[in-house]
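Exercise: predict the structure of this protein bound to flavin-adenine dinucleotide.
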Amino acid sequence: MTSTQERYDLVILGSGSTAFAAALHAAELGRTAVMTEFRTVGGTCANRGCLPSKNLIEAARLVYDAAHPRYPGLSPVHMPINWAELVAQKDEIVSEYRAHKYESLLDEPERIQIVSGQARLLSDHEVEVQSADGVRHLVGEQLLIATGSQPAIPALPGLSDVPYLTSDLLSSADDPWGTELREQPRSLLILGGGYIALELGQMFARFGTEVTLVTRGKSILSGYEPEIAEALTEILQEEGIRIVTGAQVRGVERSGDGVTLSVKLHGSQHTFTAEQLLVTTGRRPNTEALGLEQAGVELDQAGAVRVDRTLRTTVPHIWAAGDVIGRETESQMATPVGAHDGKIAAHNALSGEPPRQVDHTVIPRTIFTDPQVAVVGLTDEEAVAAGIACNCNTIPLSVVPRAGAIRDTRGVIKMVLDGPTRRVVGVSMLGVNAGEVIHEAAMALRFGATTDDFIDLVHVYPTMAEALKLVAISFTKDVNRLSCCAT
Ligand SMILES: Cc1cc2nc3c(=O)[nH]c(=O)nc-3n(C[C@H](O)[C@H](O)[C@H](O)COP(=O)(O)OP(=O)(O)OC[C@H]3O[C@@H](n4cnc5c(N)ncnc54)[C@H](O)[C@@H]3O)c2cc1C
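Solution:
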């Protein structure tokens, strides 16, 4: 089949949040842009990641809270669960959101276009898109790589011979890949101790699945503050999740209808068996089979596209942003980071104005366990490694009036300061609404606030945000002995 070349100011590989942000900005600048997609429009977050997981995590919280009322006087209620209906409503939410927030933007093809099919670079300006309908050739004055990431699968003996799930298990129904989990497992082994393992692990456990989480790390959440990991471990264990740390997985095999992991644990051999295995050992950038090397686009050691702070790759008119740049420029794989940077990439590619640089020093992020984990800036260890003469304090959330009032004092908050100036360089919190509270800390870090700024700011009483004020006070006073509104 022959095809003509179609010319655009910006050709984008991918159609996730990074790609959409870039395409929308191109349209704002009055330039032509086209996205390409071989899976579902909207990418990982809308179809397989953030949205479906947060939908079902909240349903699981309702089930758990009903069965475990915190208030004397309220009796537990055990809600029967209809898994098929839960999945169907999740798919409905996903498809409504996708229609409203993504597909509707394609109704004006003169602004943003999308071409379905698998894209790859034929040269540094030409992209071939292959689909069942044929081949199209898109020529871009500028190109943007926004192909996201996929589950990283470890090379474990036997893994390729057993069925296993990945973080794609929440794929929406119209995903042709058929990776979705359609029945609730009675038992689940989860390999990994990062945020996806914890969010999905707690969710399944709350729906009634017997969950065992196996990680090679000394604790869950490596890279986070140890006080947070320790407190969350206790909370999850109290809910009945079995957490196995320091595990060296030797192999995987089928056993009956299930899967068995062979593990070396503190010198001795153990096996763990469950109906299903979920592998959540990280995500890797989608950079394979894109023709990047021929076009001169270099990758880093982790397989991410190498970029400078303007998101320019090693080819001047090719840009990259979102999950596909991995940890380049200290970026993180998260939707708002990709959306923020997609716009910057489009600006730098198309505006003709001086290039904007990305600044990834203040990226608030949240793990949607219950209670939530939220962090911004540096951990204690990172501050020390950066040569900061740091000073840290951790307080339990039991000192926060709101936590006491609502009978949920689970968690801690830790603040990291640059000692001499008392400038706050990092905050980590495990607690109710931590994902909302962290935005105050993020704004504070952005503007170089000190502990005095947190103390001087009048906080709404009683809110969980007062945890920030109290941890700032704790550097000079014993917060256990303060009256409720004292500073
Ligand atoms: C279970 C889970 C939960 C998550 N929860 C959160 C959360 O709560 N908050 C948060 O901020 N982040 C969350 N994330 C991460 C978030 O989903 C990603 O960071 C985000 O989607 C990255 O956006 P992106 O546009 O860079 O890539 P993607 O959204 O992955 O989009 C890239 C698109 O490119 C397409 N593509 C790839 N190669 C080609 C090709 N050759 N041709 C054509 N198309 C191609 C892919 O099919 C994909 O649709 C979660 C992820 C998972 C898996």
